[in-house]
């Protein structure tokens, strides 16, 4: 309650300051210069509360990105939103198909919505095409949305068909790296005033920028095709919109470049001549199968091989230290395994609603949102930076039981798309408006059924640790198994109501309260993978293993908003959110992992937020400024940890910690005159684990070591890990878009030049970075990205000579800044870390036109 009182007192102080500022702004408005006469900041309409309303009247942190903003800032997919919204980051892990949002430092609690339905297979990679808006909501959600989320939501709204208008859009871009991008849209009225369709298609191709030694092929290329058909029918109060989408990705693999290597790692320490037990077992197995004449020969080969791999790491680190640009190249797969990213993603959303209109003092609307989502993906890769001699394989997502259908073909990996994860959702809402806005209420119910069908043709994650160089015929390892049955269901009901007391004489005051209750049930049955030597083919074997997880929890929100003037609002909000637990899809050998449990429990968060939203004119400058401060208390936080199971690298969720997250965010617009304006955003975030007592994440500490807590149970070693930095959370982020409108004859059209700057402080990519630093002080580059800034430049000429045609020239990453979008930290599990780097300087030309 102390923090709540602090928030309320702060709100009052902010209100007084804002009121004084509003009065000063009103005085300054009468003195505005001629240059700003007629310049305004347009009203931005958002649906953050499931109704259309002015963004400046919504008592929560919302960022709205228009189609024009997407084009100007070259935001191609949701991964790019960190350059447009405060406290948003996107981290890539293992490959470009496996990226996760983090909002205010939380990577497990962000839900994407496409056309009001949860979507996108849980990944943050879907490209934008023909959208009407993108909205980012910071903070807990759930009392108005289908899924519960503790961190926020990203709302992607496609452009609906336009009634009674033939038209469309052509948009083409070409550039270096053989860039060819095209989007075509066709809007077709079918029945006047009643029925229209909208078809959109796009293709996106950019060659990769990470070169492979001695080969013409590159990694990090882009190659996808997207198709969408939307049909809308209206008749009186009835409106039905259905949209079907399909995305195909077939592109080169993700470039993974060595970031650090641990020379003291026991596998490369030849004084340990006997070697780790796992390799003793490999030798014994090889001898028993006739692949090696005797154990001594096998052990000798092991020592020679590890010595050569250790030298490869030293040589590669020396090469990378010679020039920053060296990270633009890496070793090809040493055994010829093809490197690729594959994805198929299809969805159908149907929104049916009926507006009953005014019934006495009540305005009533009902809506039903049904969705079907099908997602499958796979990625073949070498993730050690030396061509896969230490590690190569096919990684989809060890926490998702549906994707990847991998086996061996001869001695190479055969990576294919497996059967898709299918998700069905249905959400029913009743919206009521009493007495023209006095009381606005929503009551809803949500159901989700997520099904991973049986797959006995291949298994999800396969790895060759040391790439079979010890004994090539032993093939790949697997620690996930075959899926016999997997179902996850969620039921929820929710309600939220806003009371506008201004309508009964209490100036500007409104109160909002909401509540949600959720039931979750997850069940997963897997079969043990059995390998057939020497073909390497995996087949499912008995016995089946079934895991179930059941949980329930509640969300609530309460906010107070005061509309001080028509241009100024202050608010305070308290929210509680629940995020369901789940199961870790790993075999029985996973019991040796630190803190491993087959299931993990829900996590909860309590957030308090205060904010100001204001429009003003001051000193001749027309401006908009939105400020907020938040405080999060997290309990039972689950983190994603990394470990080794049977020589296979796996990820798993565990409830290990409690934490606090606090921050300050600002975003706005400044129009200095008719020709120059700025859009900006800034966030400062502070996070700290308040409790994390657990096993050594790297299984190094043993009972009796000085680092073990005296309170450790008998025979165990527990560590205090609360000193670890919070991952995926830069302390500072900022973005500025400066636009200069050239003063040219209007008959020529409109010309403008934009500079887009993004900067952030350092960012960690694993939750146990401090422990990693203790064990290997030289490994910081393996799990940390230092501060960096990027600059994009763009020149646009719109409505060229009043023709309706538009053109642009752009250069992205002008300064060729080298920075990682993610890192694979395995310094204490496999002895290396690899980085995935963002694109270098790229330029292009874009032409587009709307018809008619």
Describe this structure in words.
The protein has 852 residues and is mainly beta. It is 10% helix and 52% strand. The chain has 5 helices and 47 strands. The strands form 10 sheets. The chain has a 22-stranded antiparallel beta barrel. A 5-stranded mixed sheet has the order 3-8-9-6-7. Strand 20 (362-382) and strand 21 (391-394) form a beta hairpin. Helix 3 (277-288) crosses helix 4 (295-322). It starts with a helix and ends with a strand.
Please bin the fraction of helical residues. Answer: under 10%
Judged by helices, strands and strand pairing, the structural class is mainly beta
Low-confidence stretches: 1-35, 269-275
Total helical elements = 5
Based on Cα principal axes, name the global outline: globular
Mean pLDDT: 86
Number of strands: 47
> Could you state the oligomeric state of the chains shown?
single chain
How far apart lie the N and C ends? 58 Å
Describe this structure in a few short sentences.
The chain has 852 residues and is mostly beta strands. The strands form ten sheets. The chain has a 22-stranded antiparallel barrel. A five-stranded mixed sheet has the order 3-8-9-6-7. A three-stranded mixed sheet has the order 14-13-18, with no helix packed on it.
């Amino acid at each position: 309650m102390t923090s709540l009182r602090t928030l309320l007192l702060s709100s009052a102080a902010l209100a007084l300051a804002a009121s004084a500022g509003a009065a000063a702004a009103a005085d300054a408005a009468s003195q505005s210069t001629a240059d700003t006469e007629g310049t305004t900041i347009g009203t931005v309409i958002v649906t953050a509360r499931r109704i259309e309303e002015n963004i400046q009247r919504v008592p929560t942190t919302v960022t709205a990105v228009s189609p024009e903003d997407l084009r100007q800032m070259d935001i191609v997919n949701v991964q790019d939103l960190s350059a447009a919204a405060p406290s948003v980051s996107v981290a890539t892990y293992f490959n470009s198909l496996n990226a996760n949002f983090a909002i205010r430092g939380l990577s497990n609690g962000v839900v994407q919505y496409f056309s009001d339905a949860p979507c996108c297979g849980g990944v943050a990679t879907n490209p934008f095409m023909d959208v009407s808006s993108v909205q980012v909501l910071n903070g807990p959600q759930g009392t108005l949305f289908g899924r519960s989320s503790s961190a926020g939501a990203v709302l992607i709204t496609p452009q609906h068909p336009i009634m009674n208008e033939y038209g469309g859009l052509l948009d083409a871009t070409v550039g270096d790296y053989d860039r060819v991008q095209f989007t075509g849209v066709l809007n077709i009225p079918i029945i006047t005033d009643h029925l229209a369709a909208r078809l959109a298609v796009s293709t996106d191709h950019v060659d990769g920028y990470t070169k492979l030694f001695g080969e013409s092929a590159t990694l990090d290329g882009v190659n996808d095709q997207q198709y969408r058909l939307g049909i809308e029918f209206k008749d009186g109060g009835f409106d039905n919109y259905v949209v079907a989408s399909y995305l195909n990705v077939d592109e080169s693999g993700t470039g993974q470049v060595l970031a650090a290597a641990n020379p003291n790692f026991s596998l490369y320490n030849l004084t340990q001549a006997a070697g780790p037990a796992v390799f003793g077992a490999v030798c014994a197995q090889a001898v028993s199968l006739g692949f090696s004449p005797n154990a001594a020969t096998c052990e000798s080969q092991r020592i020679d091989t590890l010595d050569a791999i250790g030298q490869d790491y030293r040589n590669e680190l020396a090469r990378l230290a010679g020039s920053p640009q060296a990270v633009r190249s890496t070793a090809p797969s040493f055994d010829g395994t093809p490197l690729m990213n594959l994805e198929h993603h299809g969805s159908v959303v149907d929104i049916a609603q009926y507006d009953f209109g005014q019934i006495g003092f009540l305005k009533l609307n009902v809506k039903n949102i049904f969705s079907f989502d099908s997602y499958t993906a796979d990625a073949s890769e070498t993730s050690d930076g030396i061509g896969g001699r230490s590690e190569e394989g096919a990684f989809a997502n060890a926490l998702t039981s549906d994707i990847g259908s991998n086996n061996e073909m001869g001695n190479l990996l055969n990576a294919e798309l497996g059967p898709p994860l299918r998700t069905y959702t249905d959400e029913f809402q009743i919206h009521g408006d009493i007495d023209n806005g006095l009381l606005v209420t929503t009551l809803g119910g949500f159901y989700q059924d997520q099904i991973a069908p049986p797959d006995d043709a291949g298994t999800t994650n396969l790895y060759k640790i040391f790439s079979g160089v010890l004994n090539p015929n032993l093939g790949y390892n697997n620690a996930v198994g075959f899926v016999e049955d997997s179902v996850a269901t969620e039921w929820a009901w929710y309600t939220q109501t806003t009371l506008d007391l201004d309508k009964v004489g209490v100036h500007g005051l409104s109160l909002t309260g909401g509540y949600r209750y959720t039931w979750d049930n997850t069940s997963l049955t897997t079969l043990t993978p059995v390998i057939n030597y020497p073909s390497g083919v995996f087949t499912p074997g008995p016995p089946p293993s079934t895991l179930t997880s059941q949980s329930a929890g509640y969300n609530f929100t309460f906010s107070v908003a005061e509309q001080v003037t028509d241009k100024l609002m202050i608010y305070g909000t308290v929210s509680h959110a629940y995020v369901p637990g789940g199961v870790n899809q790993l075999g029985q050998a996973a019991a040796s992992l630190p803190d491993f449990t087959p299931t993990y429990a829900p996590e909860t968060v309590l957030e308090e937020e205060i904010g100001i939203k204001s429009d003003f004119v001051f000193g001749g400058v027309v401006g908009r400024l939105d400020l907020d401060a938040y405080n999060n208390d997290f309990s039972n936080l689950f983190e994603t940890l990394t470990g080794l199971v049977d020589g296979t690298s796996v990820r798993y969720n565990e409830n290990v910690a409690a934490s606090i997250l606090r921050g300050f965010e600002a975003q706005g617009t400044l129009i200095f005159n008719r020709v120059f304006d700025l859009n900006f955003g800034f966030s400062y975030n502070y996070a700290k684990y308040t409790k994390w007592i657990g096993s050594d994440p790297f299984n190094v500490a043993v009972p009796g070591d000085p680092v073990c807590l005296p309170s450790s149970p008998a025979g165990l070693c527990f560590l205090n890990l609360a000193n670890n930095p919070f991952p995926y959370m830069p302390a500072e982020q900022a973005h500025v878009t400066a636009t200069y409108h050239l003063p040219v004859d209007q008959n020529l059209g409109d010309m403008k030049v934009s500079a887009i700057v993004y900067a952030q402080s350092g960012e960690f990519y694993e939750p146990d970075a401090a422990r990693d630093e203790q064990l290997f002080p030289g490994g910081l580059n393996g799990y940390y990205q230092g501060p960096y800034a990027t600059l994009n430049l763009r020149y646009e000429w719109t409505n060229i000579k009043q023709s309706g045609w538009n053109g642009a020239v752009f250069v992205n990453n002008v300064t060729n800044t080298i920075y990682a979008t993610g890192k694979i930290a395995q310094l204490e599990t496999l002895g290396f870390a690899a980085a995935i780097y963002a694109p270098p300087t790229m330029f292009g030309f874009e032409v587009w036109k709307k018809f008619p």
